[in-house]
Each structure stands twice: as structure tokens, then as C-alpha cells.
Design goal:
Helix content: under 10%
Strand content: over 45%
CATH topology: Elongation Factor Tu (Ef-tu), domain 3
Radius of gyration: 13 Å
Order of helices and strands: HEEEEEE
Largest sheet: 6 strands, antiparallel
CATH architecture: Beta Barrel
Oligomer: single chain
């Protein structure tokens, strides 16, 4: 597993990530990537916001996010829902 950094995501806002779930996969779109100043974390602190479909809804857990040949494990929490889908947040601090 690679040490994720803000730069791994900041240039990919608007792009889809594939998340394997229950024998299939779900596409989540990266809506936002924001740096979090003051983090002591190696690679810096940052916040990611993804949007997926209303169904199926992911529960709070760690999932594999695939894009561009990388498989990254990311812990996400569902934080909002509207007619466009479910928003998920990941924070690296």
C-alpha cells in the first residue's frame, strides 16, 4: 500500500474511481480534494469528497479505489445524500 498524498488526488477532481463491491463494481466520482494545513502526517493532510449513486449505498468502511493502475485502500464515510447520489468523505490527517 502506498503512502497517499494530496498530489495523488488534486489533479483528478472530476474523474471516476472504480470500487469493487459484492462481485461487481461501483463508480465514485472525485468531487473535491482539499489540503488540510498543519497536519503532521507524512505526505500532508487532505480531505476527499466522492459521489456515488443512491443505490447501492456503501457503509462506513475501507474500500479499494482503483484508477490509473493504482489500487488504494481508502476509509470513507457517507456524509450526505440528495437526488444526485450519495457523498462520501475521506480525511487523511
Amino acid at each position: 500500500m502506498r503512502n497517499l498524498k494530496f498530489e495523488d488526488f488534486s489533479g483528478h477532481v472530476g474523474q471516476d474511481y472504480e470500487v469493487p463491491v459484492q462481485g461487481g463494481s461501483l463508480k465514485l466520482n472525485l468531487e473535491a480534494a482539499q489540503a488540510i494545513p498543519g497536519s503532521i502526517r507524512e505526505g500532508g493532510g487532505f480531505r476527499l469528497v466522492f459521489r456515488g449513486p443512491l443505490q447501492p449505498q456503501l457503509i462506513q468502511a475501507t474500500y479499494i479505489f482503483r484508477r490509473g493502475g493504482y489500487d488504494d485502500q481508502i476509509f470513507v464515510v457517507p456524509v450526505a445524500a440528495d437526488q444526485r447520489g450519495i457523498q462520501y468523505e475521506a480525511i487523511f490527517y
